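[Archive record]
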Amino acid sequence: MARYQGVETDLNGAIVPGAKIYVYQFDGQTLAALTDDYGGTLPNPVISDSLGGYYFNVISQGLYYLKHQYSGRYELFEITAVGELIAAVNSSPANAGKFIALDADGAPTYASGTGADAALRTDLAAPGGSALSGFLQAGTGAVAESLQTWSRRVGIWPEQFGARVGGFDDARLVKAIAEINAHGGNRDLYLADDFTLSTGDILALTNASNVRIHGPGRLILDGGAADEGSILNLIGTCDNIILSGTRFSGPGRTDSAAKQYGFHNNSGQTLSKIWVDSCAFENLNLAISIGTESAGSVTNAIFTRNIIKHMTGTLGGQGYGINCVGITDAIIAYNQIEYAERHSIYVSRLKDTAGTYGGVLVDGNIIRNHRQTVNGLVTRPAIFMGRGYGGKISNNFIADYWDGAIGVGQDTGGGGAPVRQCGDIEISDNTLVGRRNAIASIQIAEPLVPTTARIDRIDVKRNKLFVDLAVATAQYEIEVYNGSNINLSDNNFYLANVANGTERLIAVGTIAGAGDVANVYVERNKVAGTAAGTPSLVNFATVYLPSAMATGTAKIVVRANDNDTGFTSLNVEYAATRTNPNIVDQVPGQLLTGVYTAGSTTPSVAGGIERFVITNASATTITNFLGGVDGQQIMLTFTDSNTTLQYNTNLRLPSASNIVGALRRTVVLVKSSGVWMPVSDITGS
């Protein structure tokens, strides 16, 4: 027990009786337990007597505060052992801002600015000074730690690792990345300035997860001969990597050796949850390249709101905006890409087995001036997706493009590459403005005869295509090289300055062998536009079918397309005389005319065929029309007398008699209860 006593005075030194003196423990909030000289309890606060005197005893060692209610001043005193009192230190405006230290006798005193407080400042300013300060987060259950521990966990700045060396930032950037890798990630790297690299492939996140690299700074490849490779690379197993708000740039090299990439990984890595958002890439050979090529896996990637300009070079590995190979479950959305010289967005090697799907969405991107300076009449569309199953290309805006806007395709195995099928891809609601050369805006399939590599189940719908043929060479707007189960529907075509006989909107089977095209549907597309002058557009067609399609057996359905009256004259243009019985060629308001094969005794009217023109060079008896449904009508127009319709259980003809054809004789039948019945029989004149 240690006794403390004093006399209460005001600021002028006058004695103050009846004043309250509060005694707090060192926290300044908890009132201390006090006793009198006999061990009895004293109230806290204590009250000064008529002469201003007061006293109390404390029972525990430690620091205590006295607050004098009357004068408002404070005192600090320390009990170093029970029964031993160290003199108090009184508060005073003159001591504001000073540190409390122990004098030569161990008593508390205010230190001068050149004494102990200066030493403390030196300690705090030392490299380990932040370890001397504590930090406690607000909230229940928060755990105290040093300020140093907390700040190291919060983030890393390259500037913390030294100055530039020879004008380059390689050393300090490498050290910053190494610090992140040493902790398996779990750090932020903040880039607030421009940093120049003398070479690529030195910044590599290796087996790091939960890393965010962000800030308005810029990473620059200097353009020297040795600066090949990636600005930022991912190696090993990396999960939850976020790249946000950072700029990447290079010198825009176009030579064959140039491989300057922004954000990239080599094949063989295991990557997941990769997000590149709101970054800028310019004057590189490739902005973003994430994939597996021949090994590894990449899942759950997002590339959004990036600005990409001038990706240079036309060789393999050059000229890409966003390149994703062998990736699963990815979103590429709301990016702005200009002047890419190979592909603006390239998505390849999706899941390559039917029934398993890559799940890649390319949506809402703005692409301009694709291949403007390097176009060469090759199929290098702005957006390409294929060589696997499961993807969607939608709501993109592509303007002023050379060598195609959108393409999907398989891999036919050329150049030793493995054969890869392609299918289950949707192309919808895109706006394509300004085709600039004679490569189709939308390309379906690899432009090679596919042999065993097939493309299947491609849905092209609700796209809008605006083309000025005074600027672009007349050509197909959608070209299906080959494939099966291809749906081209509800697309809108707006054409300006169309010259006579030059434009064909859609071509099917332009590069295909026998059996390479099946079940292609061209339906409900709308065509409008203006002619160049006032020509008679006799040969302008909605759909063009090469000879192999016109004379083969591929099922191709062209119907319900809305052609601008007086602007287009052909629903389908055939490169050879049509003999294919599986083509449906129907113009709105006209009967659906099928192809009658000479000599056929049971022609098919499946698919709603409504009319046949029947010609036979020798006697032929027709006994039935197969594939019809109840209520279906067929009009039969004969060109000679070599054909006979036989009365039988399938054809219930008038007077139970046969009908013999004659020039322009026309018979109309309707199917009812499974039997063809006569409606009319008109003899031509």
Q: What stands out?
A: The helical segments are 116-125, 147-154, 170-182, 547-551. The chain has four helices and 60 strands. The CA atoms of residues 321 and 383 lie 10 Å apart. The chain has four domains: 2-111, 155-348, 373-396+406-590, 611-682.
